[in-house]
Specification:
Chain lengths: ~500, ~250
């Protein structure tokens, strides 16, 4: 790995609120999207003429389309309850990474162009016109937000910075200032069907190889079906599950669950991506276009239900948005929850006695669980609020003998983001990614030291990719990170019931 | 209008004007919040799965500032004390606008105890604390705008001028009530020529006019944040985006 040109926090097990350091990460910016990347998903290729005015007009349009933005622009009292809650602020000390300050970068423009006080009094009312320097700030700091919603938990009015970041990115895209990482990927997923641009033949090869590999390792003929018409379940997994580690071990876990439960399932080559970066850039239409392929695949394959793999922001889109985007589900079997999370699916089978586990298979592990931000604060599993916390933990308890929790201020609804979510999982943002993981790294270090934890299970493709890349900078090995269904894969007893 | 002094005519006009502007602008804001669509389901979870649950969640926010309590105990303490004291002060002031005075309002002026007056003192103290906190904590200082200090100072001065009339420069309470009841019944009478009262009133009018154009709109806006008001039922019930292209 390339040497880092910034300092990495020392691990002490404690999360300390830093003193503010203005401008500390102003230099961290995403690579700009090329004209081709922008226009492929319907945005202007170049920065448009008169872009300041166009950006303001777009803001006006969004204020009329999103109640969240309309209300949040007005009602923040700057109490500061959110100020020390963002992992990027805790990791960098840059005051613009305080959620309230991040929002103010947009609010000052809002005041100037949309409020009487701002129009009349200008800077006295905290108003500022759109300008090149404001756009520089936007480009930096709206790409230092992973849309994790931790700030919104503590806000007396429920103001969610994610909504503001999404709107800012939507405005930037609309005037031709795109982010390469997101827009390039969206171009691939809308034409090829997954974020990697993996063609059907390559996907078929990968799955075939996985079948052989699994057969060799466990001695059972576990299938990884592709485009199987008439299967009961369409599995939508993040494409990282097809090639990354520990993602692929998770995919193997899903396959073993289907195999042992005797449920027919299939992956679709047309819709082989769970992630939906349309949310990251805040664009409803792009998000819908991406999701549309999944609806089409489900109809074409004639499945009864959709089960989805381990991915955080994607589960938010699936759980909270799919019904709006690609519903109604009149082509699926109404007896099932659609979509069903793989953790819900597996736990249900375990509880009904359809799967048996040999927990000792994971006895070399002391496991803790990282709640993925968007699963925790933007979705649910099961029937009860908080099922998104309990169900994955139940799966761990059913598959492992040794499970411990991290500090209570870092889990469940107040969990910290991995630092790579929301479209930031790209190399040029490495400084913010490494610094942003520090609260999670501290909490993990704490239980590694005190409780002998050697495994942190995760249920998100981004979390897994981010952790395996940045935790080693803190001296925590990448083998510490595991997929939830990797634990299932290890423990599940295959063969006769 | 016979028998009204020039000063009275001016203040009567200002009072009606300020109230009218406040109501019109406040309601216009509420209308804009209420009428802007929510394209997607975005409750911050874990969230209630029923409408009744949402009522309970919102009650926790509005009555106890539950999320702020989770966020920062000191800010919660200062903010909560201020709002409770303000509520008591406003309750006490209803005696100037109602005749006969209902019992709960009457209790705020219970002789010898004067809970409404002491609430005013507490309110000023809480505002002072919130003001100092903005200068004291580096994070909060960084985010504080002129508007934030202005709102605290304005309400603080209203409180100070109010308690001054109680403790230092007594005002003609009967005259004040005649004036306010005159406004309420649309038969305005002369304003008591009392400099402290007129100062107090003027500051209140400034607050009324400022209110709907400022962050003080959190009073209305809190009821419209989709992150808190939405039911978590997106799998069970299809939420439709009214502006989505089909």
């Amino acid at each position: 790995m390339a040497k880092l040109n910034f300092e990495v926090e020392k691990l002490t097990g404690e999360i300390i609120t830093p003193a503010i350091k203005p401008g500390a990460t102003a230099h961290v910016k995403p690579n700009p999207a090329s004209g081709a990347h922008n226009s492929a998903i319907g945005f202007p290729a170049e920065r448009v003429e008169n872009w300041e005015q166009k950006a303001v007009e777009k803001m006006g349009e969004l204020l009329g389309k999103y109640k969240s933005l309309r209300v949040f622009m007005d009602i923040c009292v700057r109490c500061g309850a959110c100020a020390d809650k963002c992992h990027y602020f805790l990791g960098t000390g840059d005051p613009n990474n305080m959620p309230v300050a991040r929002q103010e970068l947009m609010r000052k423009i809002y005041r100037k162009h949309f409020t009487p006080a701002g129009k009349l009094l200008g800077s006295l009312a905290g108003a500022e016109p759109m300008s090149e320097s404001v756009m520089e700030q936007w480009n930096s700091y709206y790409h230092q937000c992973s849309q994790c919603r931790r700030c919104s938990v503590f806000c007396p009015y429920g103001i969610d910075t994610a909504e503001v970041s999404m709107a800012a990115r939507e405005i930037m895209d609309s005037v031709g200032i795109g982010q390469k990482y997101c827009n390039e990927i969206l171009g691939k997923v809308t034409t090829v069907g997954n974020n990697l641009g993996l063609q059907k033949a390559a996907l078929a090869n990968t799955l075939e190889f996985l079948e052989e590999d699994t057969q060799e390792l466990c001695g059972h003929d576990v299938k990884f079906p592709l485009d199987q018409k008439g299967a009961e379940v369409l599995l939508i997994a993040p494409s990282a599950d097809f090639f990354s580690s520990p993602h692929i071990e998770g995919l193997t876990g899903y396959a073993k669950v289907f195999h042992q439960a005797g449920v027919s399932w299939t992956i679709s080559s047309y819709a082989s991506e769970f992630a939906n970066f349309g949310m990251f850039i805040g664009n409803f239409d792009v998000m819908k276009t991406v999701a549309q392929r999944i609806r089409q695949a489900a109809i074409d394959l004639g499945v009864k239900r959709i089960v989805v793999g381990e991915c955080g922001h994607a589960w938010r889109v699936a759980y909270s948005f799919w019904h709006t985007l690609i519903g109604p589900w009149d082509f699926l079997d109404p007896r099932y929850k659609n979509p069903t999370h793989i953790a819900e699916f597996t736990l249900d089978l375990i509880q009904r006695g359809a799967l048996r586990m040999d927990k000792t298979a994971n006895d070399d592990r002391v496991v803790t669980f990282h709640d993925s931000c968007n699963v925790a604060r933007a979705s649910r599993m099961g029937d009860k609020p908080g099922g998104q916390f309990d169900i994955p933990r139940e799966v761990i308890r059913a598959t492992c003998n040794k499970f411990v929790e991290m500090d209570e201020n870092t889990i469940r609804e107040v969990t910290f983001c991995c630092g790579g979510g929301g479209g930031l999982l790209t190399d040029e943002l490495m400084e913010i990614r490494v610094k942003g993981v520090s609260p999670r790294a501290q909490a993990l270090h704490d239980v590694m030291q005190r409780k002998g934890v050697n495994t942190m299970a995760a249920i998100c493709a981004i979390c897994k990719a981010q952790f395996t890349k940045v935790l080693p900078e803190y001296g925590i090995g990448m083998e510490t990170v595991a997929s939830l269904h990797q634990l299932v894969s290890n423990a599940i007893i295959l063969g006769d019931k | 209008m016979e028998g009204l002094t020039g000063l009275s005519i001016l203040f009567i006009a200002l009072c009606y004007g300020a109230v009218a502007l406040f109501l019109a602008a406040f309601l216009a804001k509420i209308y804009s919040y209420a009428s802007t669509p929510s394209p997607l389901k975005i409750p911050t979870t874990p969230a209630p799965t029923t409408a009744l649950g949402v009522v309970a969640r919102m009650a926790g926010e509005v009555v106890f500032f539950a999320s702020l309590f989770k966020g920062n105990k000191w800010t919660w303490a200062g903010g909560y004390l201020f709002h409770i004291a303000l509520a008591a002060v406003l309750l006490r002031h209803l005696r100037y606008f109602l005749d006969p005075v209902p019992l709960p309002v009457e209790l705020m002026t219970y002789p010898g105890l004067e809970p409404g007056v002491w609430a005013g003192v507490v309110m000023i103290g809480a505002l002072g604390y919130l003001f100092v906190r903005r200068l004291w904590v580096d994070r909060v200082k960084y985010i504080s705008l002129f508007a934030d200090y202005f709102a605290l100072a304005l309400i603080g001065l209203i409180g100070l001028s109010g308690v001054t009339m109680k403790f230092l420069i007594r005002t003609d309470v009967e005259g004040v009530k005649e004036f306010t009841m005159g406004l309420v019944t649309l038969h305005p009478v002369n304003i008591p020529p009392d400099i402290m009262f007129i100062t107090h009133l003027l500051l209140v009018l400034v607050l009324l006019v400022y209110f709907p154009f400022s962050k003080l709109m959190h009073l209305g806006g809190i009821f419209f944040a989709p992150t808190r008001t939405q039911v978590d039922d997106s799998r069970e019930k299809r939420h439709v985006n009214p502006w989505a292209r089909s």
